[in-house]
Amino acid sequence: MAEVVLENVFKSYEKTQVIQDVSLTVADKEFVVMVGPSGCGKSTILRMIAGLESISGGTIQIEDRVVNQVPPKDRDIAMVFQNYALYPHMSVYENMAFGLKMRNTPKAEIDEKVKEAARILDLEHLLQRKPKQLSGGQRQRVALGRAIVRNPKVFLMDEPLSNLDAKLRVQMRTEIAGLHKRLNATTIYVTHDQVEAMTMGDRIVILNKGKIQQMDTPLKVYHEPANMFVAGFVGHMNFLTGVMDDSGLRLGDGTALPLPENLQGKAGELQGRGAVMGLRPEHILPENTSEAGPVFSVTPDRVEMLGSEQMIHFNFSGQPVVARWASDIPVSEGQLLTIKIEINKALLFDGATEERII
Known about the structure:
- This protein is α+β, with helices and mostly antiparallel strands.
- It contains nine helices and 21 strands.
């Protein structure tokens, strides 16, 4: 397998720049997930690594070789697409073997590799079936098998689970993660689904408008987002806008939220600045919890029951906020509710730049 390095890569279509100065390193055997909203450039970056899109500037390197001008077939990568791209007239065995046949691989070696991939993916009993006789999950496993038999340096996966239903996506997430551990393969995986990103990646890359916003481990990104975009994209985040004064963050109606302990030493330099406090729903608690924090009264206007938990929506100083509580805590719309804010878990962002204040 191999390290993949992008240095100052950008992509333009005429005067429109869609990828802006992207630099990242994917270590050998690492599983990196690129995530972001539609149109952020994640699939374009993947296609540039594969050689299916040319780059307008910068360098792409795979295992110490710059591949800017190297054709896709010579980059030693395998790509799994959103649509399975299987040949309908070929059997599962023939679909998986096709790429090796085109490379004039000996028949005995093809047979060995296809059967080994089929064993890994639990496809042995399906090798003689045609794609139309398979379920969506089985077709996706065939597409994965076709990539595995190549034994490439790098696996590239472009939203491979987006055509599957919710239950099957969960199953395939587990299968792909397990497959990566067995193969120890360098893998770059593109998705718009933040759950896939958080559960599958060794590190995740969050993109927006063709720029990398942050690249780190899933938990680091969740707990220490670089900016408001990352904080709002990875998990739910409540944003409360105000102005800093000697009481902390002063909201529009005069309510003051104290600073977290880690930022209290910066109170003086933050005076008078517009700021935004970020609160995860799980950090807005019932009053009777043991955690320290300021207490407020609110009136829920909507309660969503989600089985083991409930999402409580309310207006806080003129701004919408949602809390996540266990579903066995009685809450109803319109009742007066006392909440506690776990203020030391709060994040603070600069109101002008939207960067996190550290």
